[in-house]
Design goal:
One of its GO terms (biological process) is phosphorelay signal transduction system. Pfam families: Trans_reg_C (PF00486). The protein has 9 helices and 11 strands. With 236 residues, it is an alpha/beta fold. The protein has 2 domains: 116 residues, Rossmann fold; 91 residues, Winged helix-like DNA-binding domain superfamily/Winged helix DNA-binding domain (Arc Repressor Mutant, subunit A, Orthogonal Bundle), CATH 1.10.10.10. The two termini are 23 Å apart.
Length: 236
């Protein structure tokens, strides 16, 4: 059974993430920031940090850095008022996921469940083949994605994939908003920055070509998910 730690720095939202998690998982524990810094490596499977008012950005960064140095624990950040800067910084420090005000509690639980189940299945596969590697390495093998701004490219599984400038800009914007559904208009404005009709078609066509380059199976994408009637979401 998975063990989940929940750090509530500030909670102004009416969405009850904690109790929704408890419906699915028995081992959900409320912990303090100081306890995170003292936890032993891999004592928890997931740590979820909630800061709805963006008052504790420094503390969150400190916890992410500490956890990445000391453990393989998954780290998710929840905030009602995520800034563009935070959406960029947290993943770079090592956060595995970010949920903004558009993420409902049941959606968050499903995203975390998917990540944990993916880890479990790959761990079982590794055991069957006589190999054990860290959770972090296994997760990176599945979902590792690193942007290379200087080359307009992306690194996936240690392979550098060349992108066009438009493809890179689209992926970069999705990466800055990882875990959040981004609308067609948002992507269009951040890639083309003009005002023309038929935006949805141009964005859909761009994502189609981007998926062909980065997805092993573009018909069942692992990274860029389609959000019906909304747009797209990057899952890493």
């Amino acid at each position: 059974m998975y063990k989940i730690g929940y750090v509530a720095l500030t909670t102004t939202t009416e969405k009850d993430y904690m109790n929704t998690l408890k419906v699915t998982y028995e081992n959900v524990h409320s912990i303090e920031h100081e306890q995170v810094m003292l936890k032993k490596s891999n004592e928890l499977d997931v740590i979820i940090i909630q800061d709805d008012d963006n008052q504790y950005v420094g503390n969150i960064c400190e916890m992410i850095i500490h956890l990445r140095k000391s453990s393989d624990t998954l780290v998710w950040i929840i905030s009602e008022h995520l800034t563009k800067a935070n959406r960029s910084v947290y993943p770079r420090l090592g956060a595995d996921g970010i949920a903004g005000n558009e993420c409902e509690p049941d959606e968050l639980v499903q995203l975390i469940t998917n990540a944990l189940n993916r880890y479990r299945s790959r761990l079982n596969f590794s055991k069957q083949n006589g190999k054990l590697v860290s959770r972090r390495n296994q997760l990176n093998t599945v979902v590792g994605l690193e942007l290379v701004p200087s080359n307009f490219s992306v690194m996936i599984d240690d392979n550098e994939i060349d992108l066009t400038k438009l493809e890179y800009l689209a992926l970069e914007y999705l990466h800055q908003n990882v875990g959040r559904a981004v609308s067609y208009d948002e992507i269009y404005q951040n890639v083309w920055k003009d005002d023309v009709a038929d935006r949805k078609y141009r964005v859909s066509n761009l994502i189609f070509h981007l998926r062909k380059k980065i997805e092993k199976n573009e018909k069942a994408p692992m990274y860029i998910k389609t959000v019906r009637s909304k747009g797209y979401m990057l899952v890493i």
